[in-house]
Structure formats: structure tokens, C-alpha cells
Amino acid sequence: METEKTSEELVRGQAEIWQHMFSFADSMVLKCAVELRIADIIHSHDGAPMTLSQIASCIDSPSPDIPYLTRIMRLLVRKNIFTVHHPSDGGESLYGLTHVSKWLLHGSDLSLAPMILMQTHPSMMAPLHCLSKCVKEGGIAFEKTHGRQVWDFASQNPEFNNMFNDGMACAARIIARAIMTGYKDGFGCIGSLVDVGGGTGTMVAEIVKSHPHIKATNFDLPHVIATAPLHDGVYHVGGDMFQDIPNADAVFMKWIMHDWTDEDCVKILRNCKKAIPEKNGKVIIVDLVLQPDGNGTFDDVGFTFDLLMMADTSGGKERTELQWKKLLEEGGFPRYKVISIPDLLSIIEAYPG
């Protein structure tokens, strides 16, 4: 029996390795669905299921290959991204949306489509081939691949910069909704707010919509601010958070600290402390808090993000609460609390003194 059990375990192990080996194909098929706008096509059909020939007729191509599309949809159905219904009368199968594919809709406030295009872009995926090299030699995978760090690469490649900003903006809209749900009272006593590393201002603009009394500043590198659209109630400022940060009652940072080493984060926090009032000021950090033994909805994703930070940044990483505590104390914020919101990220509210 022991031999039989061992044999079964080996077979299961083999199957798992095959799944891990080809998981990149799942990402590419997801990208394909976004590029072909399959979810949008079905959604524009009043959300009603459609046949493959109907879907194909709406794809931006004079002669889409339906056999190719059939096989792509078969995998997407297998992954529960779309549904399929086979009529009993033998008619064409009908494909519909799921709670997953609704996140692929372009132009929706709850869309991850731009983030999918960003994360699956060759420039973002190529550094992952250098992970073993980085283990042996150290260094930054993105820099080994592209000859420069990601921020410099973005500043010199407008197309990549726009794609990156679009990806971050779509994530900001999603996170904003979660923040407004789980932290709706956190902005009430704030008169002014600076969003450090705020990209094109999407996040802080959403905050101002819900809290129009706030005087808001969107602060980021000049090449990012150069592409930022106008937002009501938001003032754009270009600069460098390692030099100084505009003064405000509170500093807001979403998905910023995980890009940097502990030493860099301490520098950022100390500049935050200089920018806010000593008595009533606070820093609002929206970032991942790793749960090493957790089995929550987003816990596995957090560890994947940690590897992406390792590949794409100069020492960036995701952190456990204990690591956050140490970082905050060194940066001059001995008091803090972690607030859970319905999202991948959490809110860390930190206070000086």
C-alpha cells in the first residue's frame, strides 16, 4: 500500500509541475482575451451569451480564425473566466460572462484590463528570466535585462510609460473603491493631503470626489506629472520624494513603499514626517501586508508580488506586519494600526512621535 500511495503522490506531483510549467500560457490567453476584447463584445450584447461566430464577427479583423478562437475560449472556460452552454438541440455553443471576466472590461471602473496588458508586456516579463542569475550574482533583474532601472526605462520610453501609468491608474480606481468602503472616516479630519507617488492622480482624485473639502496635491516624478490629466480639486506637483515632500495634514502613499529597500523607505518616511504636523499629522500607507501562514483570498498573490518586486525594483519587497513595524519605528512613526479593506492591499495608518 505504501508503494501504491507513493506512486499516486508522484503522479500528482508530476501533474502539479506541468500546471506550474505552463501557467505562463494562462497569462498569455488572458492577455489575448483582453486584446480581442472578448468580454467587451459579450457585454455589449446586453451581457447575453453569444456564439463563437457572433463573437468572431465583432473582433477587429476582416477574417478572424474561428478554430483558433474556439481553442482559446475552451481554455478560458476551463479556467472559469467565461461560461459555455451547449444547447440540447445541437445548435452553436453559447459563451457568457462570469464574475471573473467582468474584470476584463475596458473602460469600466472595475477593470484590470490595463494592468493585465502591463504585467504581460514583454518588457515586464523578460526580467523574470534573470531570477536565477540574480541569485548567483545579485543585482536587479530589470536592469540586467534592459540596462537601466524601471523608472529610468519608463522616462525614456513614452509608450511603456503610458502603458505603465494606465495599469497603475486602473488599479488605483479599484483600490479607491475599497478604501472608500473600509476607510471612509479616515479622511474626515484632513484638510490637506499629498499623494506621494500618485502617478497621474487617479487615486487622489477619487478621494477628493468623496471628500471635496480636502486640498489635494498629486506628487510624482516630473515625467509622470507631464502626462497627468486635470482633475477637479487636485494640484499636480513634480519632484523627488527622496529630496522633499510637499507639506500637508497627511501623506498618502499607495503601492510606493514596496518598490524600495528598507533604507530607502526610512528616508521616505523621514521626509513624510517633515511634511506633516507633529501633533495631528499622519501617514496613510496603502500596501500589502504579507500573511506567511494566511489562507485569505489574496494571500497567495502577495507572495507573487514579492517576486515581481525583486525582479523589477532595486530592493523592493512586500513585508509582514513585523517588518512594517520595524520600518515605521526607524522612520519616526512609533504608533500605527493596520486596517483591513476588501482588497489585495491593507491600510497602515501611522503617527509621528
TrEMBL record:
BP terms from Gene Ontology: isoflavonoid biosynthetic process; methylation
UniProt superkingdom: Eukaryota
Mind telling me which SUPFAM superfamilies this protein's record contains? S-adenosyl-L-methionine-dependent methyltransferases (SSF53335), Winged helix' DNA-binding domain (SSF46785)
Domain (O-methyltransferase C-terminal): give its ranges: 131-333
The active-site annotation reads: H258 (proton acceptor)
One Gene Ontology MF term: O-methyltransferase activity
List the Gene3D superfamilies. Vaccinia Virus protein VP39 (3.40.50.150), Winged helix-like DNA-binding domain superfamily/Winged helix DNA-binding domain (1.10.10.10)
Instruction: Report keywords, A-Z.
Output: Methyltransferase, S-adenosyl-L-methionine, Transferase
Q: What positions does the domain O-methyltransferase dimerisation occupy?
A: 18-106
- Which CDD domains does this UniProt record tie to the protein? AdoMet_MTases
Keyword Methyltransferase found: yes
Annotated membrane-spanning segments are: none
PANTHER family attached here?
Answer: O-METHYLTRANSFERASE (PTHR11746)
Q: Please state which protein family the record places this protein in.
A: Belongs to the class I-like SAM-binding methyltransferase superfamily. Cation-independent O-methyltransferase family.
Q: What is this protein called?
A: O-methyltransferase domain-containing protein
Q: Which organism is it from?
A: Acer yangbiense
